[in-house]
Write a structure and sequence with these properties.
By secondary structure, the protein is an alpha/beta fold. The chain contains 17 helices and 28 strands. Helix 3 packs across helix 7, helix 5 crosses helix 6 and helix 9 packs across helix 15. The longest helix is centred in the last third of the chain and has 17 residues. The protein is globular.
Length: 627
Amino acid sequence: MAEVKPLKLRRELVQFAHIRASQKPYVRVLVDHQILHLGQYFDYEVPEPLSDVTIVGALVEVELGHKLTQGLIIERSEDARTSGDLKVILKVLTKVPYIEPEQLQLIQNAADYYGASTWDFIRACVPPFSKQGERNALMQDASTPQNVTRIARLPESLTTRLKSDQHLICAIEVPTSTPYWSLMVEIALERYSLGSVLILVPNERELSLLEQELNLSGIKPILISSSLGKSERYQNYLRARTDTPSIVIGTRSSALLALPRGSTIILQDDVDESHYERRSPTWNTRDLVRLREQTVSVLYVSPTISLENASRISQESLPLYRFPPSLQIKFHNANSEEDQSYFPIISEGLIKGSVLVSVGSTGYITSFSCQKCRNIALCTCGGRLYYPKGDTNPICAVCATEFIEWKCPWCQGNKARTIASGVVRKSEEFGRSFSRFPIITSSGDNPVLLLPQGNHLVLSTAGVEPRGNYSAMIFLDLEGRLLRTTLRATEELRLHVMRTLTMLEPGGDVFFALQQSDNFLQSILRANPLIAATREIADRDAVKLPPNSFSVLISGLEIESTIKVLSQIQNVTILGPFLRKDKKTFMIKGSREKRSEVVEMLKQINRIQSMRKEPLLSYQLEPYSLN
């Protein structure tokens, strides 16, 4: 006989009666949910005990479909827009507005532009709420403007423009042989005399560098960084919104930060790939900042010009300021692929100061072949083999299979011939050639922020060069970097070279591992990035790629019906489908005028997919890379 188990009573939550607020008892709430076919705005009642703290912009806890979620109050009124029984606000989380009305409007504009939900951009551009951070911000006294110590000097023509209290939109091309971070700080300090300044940098490395430079000038900036704790980050977010002038430094997630009137946004190196959000729908800092040009002054500061800004400059919708010509740089180039005539340049440079050698890849040996038959070493899966260190076995770059006692499958030879080496291997090679000088190796795995005092030979991968002054620079592996299968390989390399040249001492030597006739080298020698960008735009126009055209990568499980729907739009081109990261993908591209129509169509398709409870499409607008 089966065992009789004791009876368990089901417990239910008691719904306590609430007293509706006597004044403006209804609120309109922007509710955070992931159901695309539902609206974003819902009406709720305000209970009397919460009436005093229920303010517009407050973050609240509400119930939607028997689940607790968060919402943002956007309106409080005497009448509700929805008939019938309404649920009540359960909890008010913030004492001050989580998002200001003007900032919310910016977020909604960005969401519409990229075909995303408002909460997608709230999560991306507003720090998570912290009760401790809010308490600290409310207890902190308002800071006073600090005394400024000037480090570098700007040309009088630029200073006059920056000191003007008129609305300013401008691109500024910083020169070579002058540290770009010092110029960034000087530009920020000039605008700081007129109001708050928000500096948007590509990454945490640049943020730390500008923070140190501002501290030397006597300014303690407000940092909004993912490296900060949750409470400190939210505290700084609230501090940055005050009317007291301040200098704020943040990355792309701060692009929609609320700023007092008369503020200035300085966007550093908008070409940098760190300004691109890779998650669907992709967005970049430059486009978000451009949405704000009507309300705040915006300065695009970089040693080079992005394709998007070059297009605006050519159309005379964006002014460009170029620094006066600086001292000439001594250029050298290779006569052949294996030309090592840069060794004397390194020797002479180390006598004067430090020398930088820019290497294309990290690691040890990134590719090798058989010494006997010259066939490239490959795995059975097709991936290339590489040596992570000098005393290890080769490993497949795709499936990570380790080959113990490797032998060539073609001739059974067991001796490797290096084809391409990384920064670690080159450090060993250069260390033997220049043993009298200390070697510094900087890579993504082990970056070095600042160049120490003394004469050093520095080997670094792109983007993590120790910031300092160099007497000579050597750029290797340029041809391989130009052949990268990305949409912006040339633009990205141009930024890296021009930004690195700002660290060169006036009159210093530079060696490029390219032949004299190379188009990229010629564009660097002309020292006019705008001309190079304009020519690249013309090439892109021929194949309908940004900036004068738009492109969207669309992925999903069943995309054939989507292709059929989108093909009905006039004057667009569809490429695919093809497999991308194991997903069916296709690309649609066309003129800029068709962009909003395609985005709206994709939003409608996803709403229908959501109603059917089918997998949604993911799409990337103007993707940084097709990989």
